[in-house]
């Protein structure tokens, strides 16, 4: 998609579209588009002129390359308080949504302390766990999976962002539920071991008074 990247960059140079800054205070690191595999995110301000320029650019791209945009999978994401979203959607021909889009698993535009940011991360954890059957794994096996696979997800998600406390608590809850899940037989063994431990601690306490 080098052609699209060139065309969007040209729009930016000509002052026809504006993206967002990675650092708003210093106005550095402006991003107007992100490309990965078959996913394309284009950013602009909520002015109909900018949406028109992007619409024309996409039409030109289709004419030059012969590619066709899949309107069923294309969405106009509204970030913040934008009036008349239906108007902008009618210009570009996409359906619109006010939910943050995902890019490489991250919800773009969501605040760190909101459910919009934390829910996709926790759901990703849960889906990964659902693919394993903890019923047929030993407690040691579940612990290995948590330490090796789930912990690597933490590094991936939080390599750029500081994790809110609520997210950490939710992830720990998911890990804890997976670790201590299993058959009734496993639960019975754990309860028996805990009762034996409590009994031994009681004997030690009274024997050392």
From TrEMBL:
Pfam families noted in UniProt: RVT_1
Xref: InterPro entries: DNA/RNA_pol_sf, RT_dom
Segments traversing the membrane: none
Domain Reverse transcriptase intervals: 24-107
PANTHER family reported for this sequence: OS12G0587133 PROTEIN, REVERSE TRANSCRIPTASE ZINC-BINDING DOMAIN-CONTAINING PROTEIN-RELATED-RELATED
Record protein name field: Reverse transcriptase domain-containing protein
Organism: Linum trigynum
């Amino acid at each position: 998609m080098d052609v699209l990247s060139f065309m969007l960059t040209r729009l930016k140079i000509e002052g026809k579209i504006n993206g967002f800054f990675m650092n708003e205070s210093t106005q550095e690191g402006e991003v107007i588009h992100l490309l990965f595999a078959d996913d394309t995110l284009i950013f602009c301000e909520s002015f109909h002129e900018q949406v028109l320029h992007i619409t024309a650019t996409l039409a030109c791209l289709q004419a030059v390359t012969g590619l066709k945009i899949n309107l069923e999978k294309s969405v106009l994401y509204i970030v913040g308080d934008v009036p008349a979203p239906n108007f902008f959607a009618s210009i570009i021909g996409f359906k619109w949504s006010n939910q943050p889009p995902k890019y490489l698993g991250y919800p773009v535009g969501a605040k760190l302390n909101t459910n919009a940011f934390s829910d996709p991360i926790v759901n990703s954890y849960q889906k990964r766990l659902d693919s394993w059957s903890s019923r047929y794994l030993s407690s040691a096996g579940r612990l290995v999976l948590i330490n090796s696979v789930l912990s690597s997800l933490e590094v991936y998600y939080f390599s750029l962002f500081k994790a809110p406390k609520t997210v950490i608590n939710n992830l720990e809850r998911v890990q804890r539920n997976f670790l201590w899940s299993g058959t009734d037989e496993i639960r019975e063994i754990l309860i028996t071991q805990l009762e034996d431990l409590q009994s031994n601690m009681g004997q030690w306490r009274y024997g050392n008074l």
